[in-house]
Amino acid sequence: MRVLAAMSGGVDSAVAAARAVAAGHEVVGVHLALSTAPGTLRTGSRGCCSKEDAGDAKRAADVLGIPFYVWDFADRFKEDVIDDFIESYAAGETPNPCLRCNEKIKFSALADRAIALGFDAVATGHYARLDDGVLRRAVDADKDQSYVLAVLTAEQLSRALFPVGDTPKDQIRAEAAERGLAVANKPDSHDICFIPSGDTRAFLGAKIGIRPGAVIDADTGEVLAQHDGVHGFTIGQRKGLGVQGPAVDGKPRYVTAIEPETGTVRVGSAAKLEVWTITADRAVWTSGQAPEGPVECVVQVRAHGGTARAVAQVSRGARGGPESDDDGIVVQLSEPLTGVARGQAVVLYRPDEAGDVVIGSGTISGTGSQSDRS
């Protein structure tokens, strides 16, 4: 099989490429240039897509003895990931750029080009498993990335390989060292790749500008402070609210609602963060077919967040059909989740003992409290 190995310059993608070679595939390495002005060096675990990363990927390919190329996807990345990220925050949402990058870049734009060039699959260093086309959590629960891959369609999964998903991270590093890969001890990148400073609020402020509004007490309606834009807030946020002191009862305040139309940010008690109902759009079913009737499942709403048992129901769109962008999901939780924001993904897992099989996902468009269920 001809395999295109996406090599970020990190240890995971290097070992993924090495395993594809060891499996007897005809492998070609490619590094994605995602920035029009890549930094010369990364700083520790911050940032990626730097010149250093491209060099590390090239050196790994040389050790493996495979051809290596750099493909420029900077314009597509800006349009589909960075601009989407900015627009979502301006609309009071909390997007996950890694999820959108997988959906639009690595398993769409990159995979489309790979297939056009005669490759059979794209291999990446994601921590997830594929079992006869079924997406499952990785063996290493702490590194599991099935959440950010749950936006992939059955067709996209059919041309994907995740060679490291069956191995704990420490063993991946040991294997990299044994193979003579210099990235064996390279720090993981944990910040948003296009914000290497780690200051998301400053990045968004520079892009969106000042859009003043008020911070309001969710219970009393009292104006507590002014702010420069809803992009500086997310549901569940406790710090950086610009509010002097805690609530009257002495308990901390949290962001409970964001209203971009009026620039209003509402803050209240932790109890107001409890969500019992989730609605989502842009439904994707990893099997390629939307389920019929209610589905018992376990849901997750953040990449490394908690889970809750639930019952999900497909909400058919105008056109309907499997994997339709018009399809939605209504999720009724059996226990509350907190910090659930519009723009995040809700991912549905099978509720069996393992709980590691992905059923599908949707982009959260709304939430409801316990009183909304009655």
TrEMBL record:
Domain tRNA-specific 2-thiouridylase MnmA-like central: 202-268
Cell compartment(s), UniProt: Cytoplasm
Active site: 101, 193
Site (Interaction with tRNA): 126, 344
Any one GO molecular function term: tRNA binding
Domain tRNA-specific 2-thiouridylase MnmA-like C-terminal: 277-364
UniProt EC number: 2.8.1.13
UniProt binding sites for ATP: 6-13, 32, 125
Recorded GO CC terms: cytoplasm
EC category: transferase
GO biological process: tRNA wobble position uridine thiolation
Catalytic reaction annotation: S-sulfanyl-L-cysteinyl-[protein] + uridine(34) in tRNA + AH2 + ATP = 2-thiouridine(34) in tRNA + L-cysteinyl-[protein] + A + AMP + diphosphate + H(+)
Region feature (Interaction with tRNA): 143-145
PANTHER family: MITOCHONDRIAL TRNA-SPECIFIC 2-THIOURIDYLASE 1, TRNA 5-METHYLAMINOMETHYL-2-THIOURIDYLATE -METHYLTRANSFERASE
Biological role stated in the UniProt entry: Catalyzes the 2-thiolation of uridine at the wobble position (U34) of tRNA, leading to the formation of s(2)U34.
Family membership noted in the UniProt record: Belongs to the MnmA/TRMU family.
NCBIfam families: PRK00143.1, trmU
Protein name in the entry: tRNA-specific 2-thiouridylase MnmA
